[in-house]
UniProtKB/TrEMBL annotation:
<dbReference type="InterPro" id="IPR027545">
    <property type="entry name" value="Kynurenine_monooxygenase"/>
</dbReference>
<keyword id="KW-0521">NADP</keyword>
<dbReference type="GO" id="GO:0019805">
    <property type="term" value="P:quinolinate biosynthetic process"/>
</dbReference>
<comment type="similarity">
    <text>Belongs to the aromatic-ring hydroxylase family. KMO subfamily.</text>
</comment>
<keyword id="KW-0812">Transmembrane</keyword>
<keyword id="KW-1133">Transmembrane helix</keyword>
<dbReference type="Pfam" id="PF01494">
    <property type="entry name" value="FAD_binding_3"/>
</dbReference>
<keyword id="KW-0496">Mitochondrion</keyword>
<feature type="transmembrane region" description="Helical">
    <location>
        <begin position="11"/>
        <end position="30"/>
    </location>
</feature>
<keyword id="KW-0472">Membrane</keyword>
<dbReference type="InterPro" id="IPR002938">
    <property type="entry name" value="FAD-bd"/>
</dbReference>
<protein>
    <recommendedName>
        <fullName>Kynurenine 3-monooxygenase</fullName>
        <ecNumber>1.14.13.9</ecNumber>
    </recommendedName>
</protein>
<keyword id="KW-0560">Oxidoreductase</keyword>
<dbReference type="GO" id="GO:0005741">
    <property type="term" value="C:mitochondrial outer membrane"/>
</dbReference>
<dbReference type="InterPro" id="IPR036188">
    <property type="entry name" value="FAD/NAD-bd_sf"/>
</dbReference>
<dbReference type="GO" id="GO:0006569">
    <property type="term" value="P:L-tryptophan catabolic process"/>
</dbReference>
<keyword id="KW-0503">Monooxygenase</keyword>
Length: 453
């Protein structure tokens, strides 16, 4: 097929959406020597004096780092981040208890305000262009390309075109929770809490987390059902609410700041989007949130999007850049993994709020970590597989279910064994009954004395 640029020209790839995934993807295609055009509705933030919109903290883990490494950006980005070694759980009484992520020394999670450096690659950035999907009516805004890559986020315009087609599966789910960001300033120029942790205040239906920033502030994100957000209408009610659920955070955020910032922006919604296939013929493909918006509770949305780029690139290598073979293979390989991480993120939505408070959950976490330490190749905690390896997401889930069954059975056998062993020892070496009777008699006479006194 002839390229829009002419027979001898390089193939043109139009990347729609210059967010995290689109910008990185543009670098991947440019590295392969394609003529890349990046379409973004917002202005070029590299030139902007004021960058509008929200800036959220993102946890960058292994998958994302591998993708950045591929285009030579890992160090540049990671050096601007803060490593996080463990979660720090804040209980209601202000007690803080760390839960490590996994094996010591391995738990490294970067927390970044990410800006992708496009400058190192020859990518044409077309700002303020509203991308119009390929039309045949000769419209001025029509863009021709050999491949259109839809990286235009959770509300993708490119994906909307897929919806018109037959056999395209699509679902979206809004969770009842919204999120709101609050800032915890530094105290005497230092972090107000220990910086190398993901701080969590789990309160069953509510949850607050805090991530450190380079300027020694923390960004606290409060997750709560919308109806609860709406119940709080005055500054005093905000303080009352924090007093009840997050009292240790009040002096750290500040009473005045809390009263003010709570009403600065309304709570934001969170959506989970699943679809399939990710491609149309050999012309168009979806990646990042456009293909799979996930709720943010596994810290994997961007990481999964970055991994999309690396998986696509691996398939390009395998199929010699033949789009007609690459695109269906990409859908075949990637859909089960992206759907698995969407489900896991939903699972963690419950785990982070409720289970981290449960003793059984904490006990199992310790057992999992201990077993991983003893048998690092056999037992790998789910979180470790997802965050610190490139194990395919759907394989990580299957392995997790298998490990869970084995460990639970092991615990049941051990408990039964201990019970039987104990009974056997008791039968073999019965304790002197008189020694047991004396304290029992004493206790009984004390009880009688108490009742009659
Ligand atoms: P986006 O970042 O949404 O970018 C899409 C881009 O497309 C935007 O720049 C937009 O302007 C542009 N665009 C839209 N429509 C058009 C159009 N028609 N034409 C041209 N351009 C267009 N992920 C993690 O990995 N770790 C985390 O810790 C983490 N925490 C999160 C916390 C919260 C509260 C939230 C909400 C998300 C979090 N995520 C996290 C998820 C992460 O933010 C997203 O997965 C990531 O931003 C997706 O990148 P993207 O490039 O696919 O989409």
């Amino acid at each position: 097929e002839e390229s829009p640029g002419g027979p001898s020209q390089k193939k043109v790839v139009a990347v729609v959406g210059g967010g995290l995934v689109g910008a990185l993807n543009a670098c991947f295609f440019a590295k392969r020597g394609f003529d890349v055009e990046l379409f973004e509705t917002r202005e070029d933030i590299r030139q902007a004096k004021i960058v509008r919109g929200r800036s959220i903290n993102l946890a960058l883990s292994h998958r994302g780092r591998q993708a950045l490494k591929h285009v030579g950006m890992e160090e540049k980005i990671v050096s601007q981040g803060i490593p996080m070694h463990a979660r720090m759980i804040h209980s209601l009484n202000g007690k803080q208890s760390p839960i490590p992520y996994g094996k010591k020394g391995q738990a490294k999670r970067e927390n970044n305000r990410l800006v992708i450096y496009l400058s190192s690659y020859p990518v044409k950035l077309m700002c303020r262009v509203n991308f119009v999907f390929l039309r045949s009516d000769g419209s001025e805004e029509q863009v021709e390309a050999d491949l259109i890559v839809g990286c235009d986020g959770a509300f993708s315009a490119i994906r909307k075109q897929f919806l018109r087609r037959s056999r395209f599966n699509y679902s979206q789910t809004y969770i009842p929770h919204g999120y709101m960001e609050l800032t915890m300033p530094p105290i005497n120029g230092e972090f107000a809490m220990k910086p190398n942790y993901l701080h969590i205040w789990p309160r069953n239906t509510f949850m607050m987390i805090a991530l450190p920033n380079l300027d020694k502030t923390f960004t606290c994100t409060l997750f709560m059902p919308f109806e609860e957000f709406e119940k709080i209408t005055t500054g005093d009610e905000v303080i009352e609410f924090f007093q009840k659920y997050f009292p240790d955070a009040i002096p750290l955020i500040g009473v005045d700041a809390l009263k003010r910032d709570y009403f600065r922006l309304p709570a934001q919604a969170m959506v989970s989007v699943k679809c399939s296939p990710y491609h149309i013929g050999s012309k168009c493909v979806l990646m990042g949130d456009a293909a799979h918006a996930v709720v943010p509770f596994y810290g994997q949305g961007m990481n999964a999007g970055f991994e999309d780029c690396i998986v696509f690139d691996e398939i390009m290598e395998q199929f010699n850049e033949d789009f007609s073979a690459v695109l269906p293979e990409y859908t075949r390989v990637r859909v089960p993994d992206d759907h698995a991480i969407a489900d896991l993120a939903m699972y963690n939505y419950i785990e982070m709020r409720a289970h981290v408070n449960s003793k059984w959950f904490l006990f199992r976490k310790h057992i999992d970590n201990l077993l991983h330490f003893l048998m690092p190749k056999t037992i790998i905690p789910l979180y470790t597989m997802v965050t610190f390896t490139r194990t395919r997401y759907h394989e990580a889930v299957a392995r997790w279910h298998w490990q869970d069954r084995v460990i639970n059975r092991g615990l049941l056998f051990s408990a039964t064994g201990a019970l039987l062993g104990g009974s056997f020892l008791l039968i073999k070496n019965p304790p002197d009954i008189n020694k047991l009777l004396v304290p029992a008699e004493k206790m009984w006479s004390r009880l009688v004395a108490l009742r009659t006194s």
